[in-house]
Specification:
By secondary structure, this protein is of the alpha/beta class. 45% of the residues lie in helices and 18% in strands. The chain is built from 11 helices and 11 strands. Strands 4, 5, 6, 7, 8, 9, 10 and 11 form an 8-stranded mixed beta sheet that branches. A 3-stranded parallel beta sheet has the order 1-2-3, with helices on both faces. Helix 2 (36-49) links the parallel strand 2 (28-32) and strand 3. Helix 9 (239-260) packs parallel to helix 11 (286-301) and helix 10 (263-282) runs antiparallel to helix 11 (286-301). The radius of gyration is 19 Å and the shape is globular.
Length: 316
Amino acid sequence: MLNWNGAEKTLECVAGLAQSTHRNLQIVVVDNASRAADLARLRQAAAARGFTLIENGVNGGYAEGHRRSVEMALAEDADFVCLLNNDLHVPPETVAKLVAAQRTQGGIVGGAPVDVPLAGVHPDLDAVEAPADALLQIHRKYLGRHFRQMIFAREQFLPYLQLRRERGPITEVSGLSGSCLLLPMPLIRAHGFMDPGFFLYFEEMDYLFRLSRSGVRLWLCCDAPVWHEREGSSSGQSSRIGAMIQYYRIRNQIHFIRRYGSGREVAMAQVKNLLLAGAALLRGRWRRAAYVLRGAWDGQRGIFGKTVSPEDALDP
């Protein structure tokens, strides 16, 4: 899992993983150039709890950070690598269920990231005991198979229990959440890893779409939930960080469509971006409108990499 100035949540996730019923498990935390106090806390915990800490000197983003743990897994001849967000609560059975599903179905298997109220999160929460209003953090459009639907359909989360009843314990999908992905190492050796140029957002979608076009099947394991505190990863963010996130989402979506779609689909997406910027201006959200327009323009020009630095928005 990656850490960027979030040691408290990272160590909570580590504590949950330590209870996993899948015993052949090595916990690796990659720190993406956190502040000194945050990194010192991780160093102390790694020594006390026995997990591996990899320190990146710079924040290279999602794919570049995870690449460090993937390289370690390749060097140690591991069977799988499981990519996790640090703000998740991982039930003890989840990793074992993901591994079992992959060995049965093949391809890439994702856990079911479920958004629940803070009061509903506890380590022994079972899939069948999820709160009735719990939402699966994968949009409905990724349950289909059409490229245009993936890009332009309305983003709508589904009730987790409803999907589990309708689709069963495991179902084939067109997209998965990068918050919980089980990747078999032979697949990585054959196809490589994610493109670090995205920096933030869309890198896992690009990777999964590229592999699915090569015949790799994608599976959502509804019986392997990971609990996400409602608004946990984004709560408390400054408006500037929120606007930066919007920049990368807009820019990288245009990159994605330019890679796999048509010129007409790029044009449709850019019209949508102009409307988003206009709506932000009408609400007086000047910074957000500026980042939307910049993201649309940079995506159109093929600008890649870390062009906007989240570190600049941190409190002194």
